[in-house]
Amino acid sequence: MKSNLEMNGSNIVEQEKTLQKYKIEWHDKITLALACLVLFMIGAPLGSIIRKGGLGMPMIFAIIFFMVFYFVRTRGQKLAREMEMSAFTGMWLAIFVLTPISIFLIYKAMHDSNLFNKEFYTRLKRKLLKRLGKE
């Protein structure tokens, strides 16, 4: 009876692992499609915000954001495979991380932000130093 229970328990664990793999693959297909949209929503505002530098500077930022996406996605996938995280949470982790960044960049692009303008930060630094020096 004891060996029968152990065998049933190991069968259940294997079935749960197989089901987790199927869930991971199902979520993977959806998140990859949405990742294209999210990365586009990051790249388009970057192109309008970063006006100087031609193609180089926006390309560097795009590569950085892609690397962030890739590393977070890979880590979430690994945690989901090891069943430390649900398949939904693990596979959608990169989307959850990058969507607020994309919304922020879209907002900044719509309001003509000086987000990546070096002169803006030097002027801001001078103003802060003047205020700190006067107080």
From TrEMBL:
* One Pfam family linked to the record: LptF_LptG
Q: Which domain of life is it from?
A: Bacteria
Please provide the record's keywords in A-Z order. Answer: Cell membrane, Membrane, Transmembrane, Transmembrane helix
User: Which coarse location class applies to the principal site listed for this UniProt protein?
Assistant: membrane
Compartmental location: Cell membrane
Which residue ranges does UniProt annotate as crossing the membrane? 30-50, 56-73, 85-107
Q: How does it sit in the membrane?
A: Multi-pass membrane protein
Q: What InterPro entries has UniProt attached to this entry?
A: LptG/LptF_permease (IPR005495)
Keyword Membrane present in the record's keywords: the answer is yes
Q: What is this protein called?
A: LptF/LptG family permease
User: What is the species of this protein?
Assistant: Niabella ginsengisoli
- Upper lineage: Bacteria, Pseudomonadati, Bacteroidota, Chitinophagia, Chitinophagales
